[in-house]
Amino acid sequence: MTQVIDKPGATNASSDDADLLRMEDVDAFYGHIQALRGVSLRVRRSEIVTLIGSNGAGKTTTLKTVSGLVRPRKGRVMFDGDDISRVDAHRLVRRGIGHAPEGRRIFSRLTVIENLQMGGYTRSSSEISDELDRVFGLFPLLADRRQQRGGSLSGGEQQMLAIGRALMSRPRLLLLDEPSLGLSPILVQQIFSIIVEINRQGMTILLVEQNALQALNVAHRGYVLQTGQIILADTAANLAANEQVRQAYLGEI
User: Fold this and answer.
1) Averaged pLDDT in 10-residue chunks for the chain of 253 residues
2) Which residues touch 248 (CB under 8 Å, ≥6 apart)?
3) Regarding beta strands 97-100 and 173-177, do their DSSP bridges make them parallel or antiparallel, or are they unpaired?
C-alpha cells in the first residue's frame, strides 16, 4: 500500500484552524457491508479537494457521511471545529454544508425556479432573491429556462440546476458528486469552469469525479480511495504526475 502523505494546497496554514472539514478514522457501513475503513482526510478553507477512485471505492459514501446521510460507526466527522457525526442531514444544511448528489436528483415536475427555491428553504425571502441572482449569474442558461420543468432540461442543464440548488443555501462547504457524469466534453469544460469560479468566490469544495484528469486539473489536493480506504494523498499536481495514479485513473499505460 502506498504511504499516505498530506501536503497543503490552497492555504499555507498547517494548524487545525485552517481545516473546515476533517474526517478522523471513519468506518461506515450499509447494513453489514463495510463501505469505509478508517478514512481520514481534511479539507482546508477555500480549497478544492478531490476524491478519485474506481466505482465502489467509497467516494459517494464519503460525501454522504459528511452530509449526514450515512452515520459513521467509528471515528468522527468535524466541521468548523464541531463534531457533526450524529447531526441530522437537514440540520447540516443550516450549518453550511451543501450537497449536489450523484445523478442530479432534481425535482423533475417542478420548474427551474421552484427547484432553486427548494434549495433555499433555509433562507429568508430576501436572501432567496439574492441567491437566485447569484445562481443565474453563474448559470445564465437556467435564467433563460426559469419557468421550464426540471425534467425537460438537458443533462447538462440538469447538472447546472443540481449545483445551483445546492448553492441556494449559501453553504460554506459544497459537496459535488460526479458533476460531469454523462455530459459531452464541451459541457464538462463548462461545468468545471463554473466549479473553479465558485471556488474563486471563496467556496470550499469537496469533489468526487470520475474524470480524474479534470478533477486534478482544478483541485488543490486529492485523495485516492480504494475499497473504502485512502491509499494515497498529495497535492493535485503530484497526484497527476504519480505513475500509479496515471496508470490506474488517467488512462495511461
Assistant:
1) 40 64 97 96 97 92 96 97 95 93 82 90 81 90 90 86 91 93 84 92 93 93 96 95 88 54
2) 54
3) parallel
211 contacts 217 by C-beta, under 8 angstroms: no
- What are the residues whose beta carbons fall under 8 Å from the beta carbon of 229, sequence distance 6 or more? 1, 36, 37, 38, 39, 58
List the grid coordinates of 155: 443533462
Q: What is the model's pLDDT at position 32?
A: 93
- Please list, in sequence order, all residues whose beta carbon lies within 8 angstroms of the beta carbon of residue 14, skipping any fewer than 6 positions away: 8
Main-chain phi, psi angles of 180, to 5 degrees:
-100, 5
- The confidence score (pLDDT) of residue 1 equals 36
In this prediction, residue 181 carries a pLDDT of 81
Length of the chain: 253
Q: Are 118 and 125 in contact (CB under 8 A)?
A: no
- How many angstroms separate the CA atoms of 157 and 252, rounded? 31
Q: Considering only CA atoms, which of 203, 101, 117 is closest in space to residue 159?
A: 101
Question: What is the pTM (predicted TM-score) of this model?
Answer: 0.86
Q: Calculate ∠ Cα 240-243-246, nearest 5°.
A: 55
User: Do the Cβ atoms of 119 and 165 come closer than 8 Å?
Assistant: yes
pLDDT at 120: 84
Q: How many CA atoms lie within 13 A of 173 on its CB side?
A: 24
Amino acid present at 45 = R
